Amino acid sequence: MYRKTLFLLTILVSLPSFAQSVKIPPYLKKGDTIGILATARKVDMAPLQAGIKLMESWGLHVVIGKTIGLDNDQLAGADWQRATDLQQMMDNPAIKAIWCAKGGYGTVRLIERLDFTKFKKKPKWFVGFSDATVLHSHINNLDIATLHGMVAITVGRATPEAIESFRKALFGEKLSYSLPAHKFNKPGKVTGELVGGNLSVLYSIIGSPSEADYKGKIIFIEDLDEYLYHIDRMMMNLKRNDYFKNVKGIIIGGMTKMRDNDIPWGHDALEIIQDITKEYDIPICFNFPAGHIQDNRALVFGSQVTMDVTATGTKITFD
Known about the structure:
Helices cover 29% and strands 22% of the residues. The strands form 2 sheets. A 7-stranded mixed beta sheet has the order 6-13-12-7-8-9-10. It has a 6-stranded mixed beta sheet with strand order 2-1-3-4-5-11, sandwiched between helices.
């Protein structure tokens, strides 16, 4: 009996370790409730109307958070007010998804005030992009999927394609994207867990408890309104922290409204990224339609995706 037990233990120890499976929150259905709140910059009700009407047209009930309309300089209330609003929605079993009203800056200021105990037991969809990357990363680190997509104030100017991808993601319909070729793309086909978000935010949380593990995964990045040398600095930081050495693939979203100094940097954002990532033997897709653009397509972080980059184009399929 001892020899048999020892033999079994030896087999188990020699088996390769597999990552813990990611929890996919229940997809929404008609009659469910979605909560809208502000985790960062202040916002009132007026710019939310298009988003509210869209949710209601899909058969969802909408709950408005207490942070909507609060004014604390740039922020939607004090840190404790924004954290309390989010905590209450996280713990409320009637709310099936939490949707950020707006981005900006400030979500990182409330993250350490949150208790994810109930959320981990009964996860629900967290939805947003840009500054919401802090919560995407923190929640993905708990092995729970999140939805990178429009914030509520952007619905009125979003493309029909972005809106439809958002609906499919919320309701659990199949997502796939076919994209034209880009001169900087690197060919290859891989399958892996999708993670990432806003480059500036990912850069800012390196070394913190909210930094996710990117090893063996596919990373998505996008950004807005940064100096070009900032893009170079942040990309170099991710490189030196072995982000690109350890990932299976890279997806580059919108690099929007970049700025330059009086003495030009000499390369645009995509050229900077291409130069820093070209040494890696992994598929890389440029100009994916997601980020600070009207055509902000939905991405399910934490889900398994297959990216197939060829000379004629790229296909990204969510498994």
